[in-house]
């Protein structure tokens, strides 16, 4: 069914998905716990805005690794703003984060309005191009993901304070580059939602299972029927999450 050439494309894409899942499933549960669902969309959109700025400013476009550090700077700045709002606008935080996302999205559209390649760049940042990820692109995300997971493992309190927002910004910046804004949001929220009502000790492990099934099924669906990979994975993640929610509901009613 799959020849060597197709497998050489699917394997890096799958590893990219697993790297994104490794941090996003954990952070997604924290996002759901805090009730700040739009933070991932907002930070991802701000990181995308940084990528657009680096693309448009020809004086910085050729600076080494500008496509990484410029979105990171924007994302960290956005995280700082949200951390500030979290202390002062508790009752309105989710609404303010939603506004932050919309303003970032509008800024991106305005910046690209007169760019002949703007529509293609915006589509790439939103939907991602996970099927075209190369092994070399995975080295930095793998190292950063390992470091962040180690930090959270040995210092779990980092997830409780303002440092959460800055860890989140770093993770999101790398993920947007790999898989796009829509898949970043789906990877954070759907596995967390799937296990939100589950109270067992293996909650986190099952959330990873939801994500892995979604990514594998989405990549296979995309390769088999020549569908956009990002959209296919979002759809299969949603189906995987829904199936697990229904299974948990069924088990609770029959217990």
Automatic annotation (TrEMBL):
Keywords: Membrane, Transmembrane, Transmembrane helix, Transport. The chain crosses the membrane at residues 6-28, 35-56, 68-86, 93-112, 132-152, 164-185, 205-223, 230-248. It holds the Pfam family ABC-3. Coiled coil: none annotated. It is a multi-pass membrane protein. It is found in: Cell membrane; Membrane. Belongs to the ABC-3 integral membrane protein family. This is Metal ABC transporter permease. It comes from Shewanella phaeophyticola.
